[in-house]
Amino acid sequence: MLLALIVGACGQTPAARHRAITDEVLARTGAPDFVDASTAERPALRHAPSGLVCVMPRDGAFDLGVFPASAANPGAQCTTVVDGAASTFVVVNFRQGMTLDQAFADALATTVGQAERRQWPGRASAADRSSPEGLPHYRIARFETEIDGAPTYLRVAVSEARGWYLQQIVTAPLTQADTAEAAAGESWRAALREFGAE
């Protein structure tokens, strides 16, 4: 679907082409609270209440949505799947008191649950090793686990700004772990800069 949108927007300036893509996604999904956040470099949507920016991939699958009104807490999410690696960003505004450590523990419990896992022995991404100065505080864990019987790399990261909690969940075949970790670190830093902006 995303490829068809990109082809249909050819012939325009990059910024106009990207806006046309996001307009089509918003019309198709009907997701409230999302607005265009495209630049000449990439099509993107911003969840206005939280500051989450969802960047669409050049190729691959993309989806987004807002939690239903019946949900205990307001929130939204967007997911990309590129070359077998899935990346989901989730934002939640908890109605009751929550700390970063509690939100991180909840994210781990929800994502990994009781599944057998061990710490991923690889090296953290270059982006994660760089200075976090100016970014909101965050927590990250990386695991090796099995999903549907396949060895899988799993990354869970959580941050907080203005009462909203941002989660990043990345899965990829274990053979692609180093590549997935590098890309996840870059996208996490980019998301934090947008999410943490006043």
Architecture overview:
The structure is a single chain. By secondary structure, the protein is an alpha+beta fold. The chain has a domain at 83-196: 3-Layer(aba) Sandwich (Protein Transport Mog1p, Chain A), CATH 3.40.1000. It has 5 helices and 10 strands. The protein has helices at residues 2-8, 14-29, 100-111, 126-129, 177-196, and strands at 34-36, 44-47, 52-55, 61-66, 75-82, 85-92, 117-119, 138-147, 150-161, 164-173. The strands form 2 sheets. It has a 7-stranded antiparallel β-sheet, with helices on both faces. Strand 8 (138-147) and strand 9 (150-161) form a beta hairpin. The protein is globular. Mean pLDDT is 89; it is low at 3-9.
Concise description?
The protein is α+β, with helices and mostly antiparallel strands. It contains five helices and ten strands. A hairpin with a 2-residue loop joins strand 5 and strand 6.
- Unreliable parts: 3-9
| Rg result | 17 Å
The N- and C-terminal alpha carbons lie at a distance of 34 Å
Compressed to H and E, one letter per element, the order equals: HHEEEEEEHEHEEEH
Whole-number mean pLDDT: 89
| Biggest sheet: strand arrangement | 4-5-6-10-9-8-7
Helix tally equals 5
SSE-based structural type: alpha+beta
Known CATH architecture of the domain at 83-196 = 3-Layer(aba) Sandwich
Q: Characterize the main sheet.
A: 7 strands, antiparallel
Percent helix range: 25-40%
Give the full name of the CATH homologous superfamily of the domain at 83-196: Mog1/PsbP, alpha/beta/alpha sandwich
CATH class membership of the domain at 83-196: Alpha Beta
Task: Please report the total strand number as a whole number.
Answer: 10
What is the name of the CATH topology of the domain at 83-196?
Protein Transport Mog1p, Chain A
- Dominant shape: globular
